[in-house]
Write a structure and sequence with these properties.
By secondary structure, the chain is α/β, with parallel strands linked by helices. The protein folds into three domains: 244 residues, Rossmann fold, CATH 3.40.50.300; 130 residues, Helicase, Ruva Protein, domain 3; 98 residues, Arc Repressor Mutant, subunit A (Orthogonal Bundle). The chain is 42% helix and 14% strand. The protein has 24 helices and 16 strands. The chain has a five-stranded parallel sheet with strand order 4-7-10-1-11. Strands 14-16-15 form a three-stranded antiparallel sheet. Strands 2-3 form a two-stranded antiparallel sheet. β8 and β9 form a beta hairpin. α13 crosses α14 and α14 packs across α15. It is elongated.
């Protein structure tokens, strides 16, 4: 609602401004956006993959004037969605200046606000609150108290001003009353203790708050929104039944539905344009980054109840770029192409983003990270190259002995290739018989991506048990599988 900036209650009346609740305000603004033909990108900038699922349900809740909760695993943009609700508020809202509860100039609810209107009348000063200041949030933790959320009686104020504890002026308001006429979000709602959850019941249903049995009731105008992990929310005892019953809408979030959407989200969020060096990430390597998260979300060693955040792919891509950037800087170059060795050098971006079950803890975070990265490599390898063990009767593609025979035979003769993330080039990689032609036929990479693509084939053959790989501080050495097995046996 665009209104000239009145500076007093009288000016506000003359301008014809009318009061409306925060839910009616958000509903009206959403209706106007929809009528104007604004797209999901306009209404929810930066949100990808939710256009047909999550966003329509949130907007239904807004149109229904509902309090609602977002249920989803970590890294599903729940907090970002809640913070974007301010886009449905008016740019500015008039409130009595100096009143601590963002009092409506026409209907003040605080003692100070009522006294201002009573004493100054139409001269009561008015301030304009920007929409960003009308959103508040609190992370639910076990130490959150009723005083934090709702408020409490301030005995020091009562003693200093010689007021009775029954006087309204001795109240110290919490964060929810101070968000009056705005949006208040509680993240990880199940972490609130049951007795604190009870304190929210009146706000959700009767729309008022009572402090420590104080006889004065405050009719608050607050939209309450929440976020939670589905397992915690549905687990008996985490959420008291009356509170769950009072939350009108429940919206389920999810991870990116497709590889393309996942790549778009990572590209949007990751910092890859580095001023020190121009780093190119080949398309197949970008696929591997996203496949890593997909494989982690299906891994039996990862706790799926905690989820695998999209922050994993963001951090992984940034670390891959950083490793290639560091190599370029050490070698005095201004450009670099990221490759597979950079991916494995960025292992720390995976270990810090996954929670392991007992079997995974026994294996160790580094081993599980290497396993998940390898599964991502293998998935992309199989997507672009012939299946090493496919029967000729089921496909027209060459069998593994034909497609990969020159490569495997070359290693069987005792040859080996050392790959290190700090080396400018991989010596002899392009000279391996049949490797370069195989890559050009199936992947068709750009010239500068060719060495990285060849490295993908070697790692794919290793993950398919056709080549051995020995990791050491000097790098990873690819060699003959049979000789590697005998060496391991002798060792």
């Amino acid at each position: 609602m665009d209104t000239p900036r009145a500076r007093s209650l009288g000016e506000l009346k003359r301008l014809g401004w009318t009061s409306r609740g925060v839910r009616d305000e958000m509903r009206a603004n959403l209706v106007e956006m929809l009528r104007a033909g604004k797209t999901e990108r306009d209404r929810w900038p930066g949100i990808l993959g939710y256009e047909k699922t999550v966003l329509p349900r949130i907007e239904n809740a807004i149109l229904s004037r509902h309090d609602f909760i977002l249920l989803g695993l970590r890294g599903q943009a729940k907090t970002r969605l809640l913070r974007m609700l301010v886009n449905f508020l008016d740019p500015f809202l008039p409130a009595l200046e100096g009143a601590e509860l963002n009092d409506d100039p026409f209907h003040p609810i605080s003692r100070r606000g009522r006294d201002m209107v009573k004493e100054a009348g139409d001269d009561a000063p008015v301030q304009w609150i920007p929409r960003e200041e009308r959103y508040r949030e609190k992370l639910a933790t076990p130490d959150v108290t009723i005083a934090d959320l709702l408020g409490d009686i301030d005995p020091i104020k009562a003693a200093a001003r010689r007021l009775s504890l029954a006087d309204e002026d001795v109240l110290h308001f919490g964060i929810i009353p101070r968000t009056n006429r705005g949006i208040f979000a509680i993240n990880e709602l199940p972490d609130l203790s049951p007795r604190i959850q009870v304190g929210l019941l009146n706000i959700l249903e009767e729309r008022d708050v009572q402090l420590r049995g104080h006889p004065v009731r405050f009719p608050l105008d607050v939209l309450l929104v929440f976020s939670a992990n589905p397992e915690d929310y549905t687990n008996r005892g985490s959420i008291i039944t009356p509170l769950r019953d009072r939350i009108s809408s429940q919206v389920l979030t999810h991870y990116p539905p497709t590889l393309d959407v996942a790549k778009a989200i990572t590209d949007q969020e990751a910092w890859t344009n580095r001023p020190a060096a121009d780093v190119r990430v080949p398309p197949f390597l970008r696929e591997i980054v996203e496949e890593t998260a997909i494989r982690a979300r299906a891994s039996e060693f990862v706790d799926q109840n905690s989820g695998v955040s999209v922050r994993l792919t963001i951090s992984l891509l940034e670390n891959v770029v950083s490793n290639a950037e560091r190599r370029a800087l050490r070698l005095g170059e201004t450009k670099a192409v990221a490759r597979l060795s950079d991916l494995f050098a960025a292992e720390s971006a995976v270990t810090g983003k996954i929670e392991l079950v007992f079997e995974g803890e026994r294996e160790g975070p580094a081993a599980i990270a290497d396993r998940i990265l390898g599964e991502g490599v293998l998935a992309v390898f199989r997507r672009h190259f012939p299946e090493p063990y496919t029967s000729a009767r089921k496909t027209k593609e060459p069998q593994a002995p034909d497609a990969y025979k020159p490569i495997v035979d070359w290693f069987a003769k005792g040859n080996a290739v050392l790959v290190h993330d700090e080396h400018a080039e991989i010596a002899g990689l392009l000279d391996i018989p049949g490797l370069k032609d195989l890559v050009k036929e199936h992947l068709k990479p750009k010239k500068e991506d060719l060495p990285a693509a060849c490295e993908l084939v070697l790692e794919g053959l290793h993950r398919s048990s056709l080549l051995a790989k020995d990791a050491s501080p000097d790098g990873a050495t690819y060699g003959d599988m049979l000789k590697g097995m005998f060496r391991d046996f002798e060792g």
